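Hi support team,

I submitted a single chain yesterday and got back a structure, but I'm not sure I'm reading the token output correctly. Could someone confirm the output below corresponds to the sequence I sent? I've pasted both exactly as they appear in my results page.

Thanks,
R.
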Amino acid sequence: MALQQPAESDPVARLIVDVPLAHLDRPFDYLVPESLSAAARPGVRVRVRFAGRLVDGFVLDRRPVSDHEGRLAFVERVTSPEVVLSPDVARLARAVADHWGGVRSDVLRLAIPPRHARVEGDPGSGSPAPPTAPPPDGWAAYPTGPAYLTAVREGRSPRAVWTALPGEDWPVRLAEAAQACAAGGRGALLVVPDRRDLTRLSEALYAVMGRDGVAVLAADLGP
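Hi R., thanks for writing in. Yes, this is the structure output for that exact sequence:
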């Protein structure tokens, strides 16, 4: 069996290892073999040996040297090339664990969705093209409706209380407001009270913006 060689550039990976023990709630350093150097980027999932067992982990960062004086084990494999742990989420998980007396790996297990290999293998259609601004016709029945859409599209933060007129197709109007927000380079979060309203709203969003730019979340979705 050939000996593994550490990566030429930044051979040390600092990891969060999925071990739910409070006294082990800290980063650990591992060597990255040259064969995994390109894939072992910050934020990806990996598998490593910890106390003789194969466990999951996340790469926090890569560095040229370790401050650990002992021998470092090698990363066994990169589970997925997808970056799923951002620096902000890592810091937030640390803060949540510290505040509630928990373990960061437990927080991350709940914060980051489980891996779905089939979804990762689907190349998809790439990033959706930025939508165009919606026509103001639907909002013209409201005195300040077109001005509201313009303010949203221009990146301002207008505040409004909207009462739909009788017979109004409210899902389409909300979809147009979301489209105006997306046309300005921002995202929109629309919340409705029940599944029936969610179905109507999602259909309107698909019709106005297409499916690539819309994500629908409901209480009955599985992991």
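A quick pointer for reading it: The chain is about 30% helix and 15% strand. Let us know if anything else looks off.

Best,
Support desk
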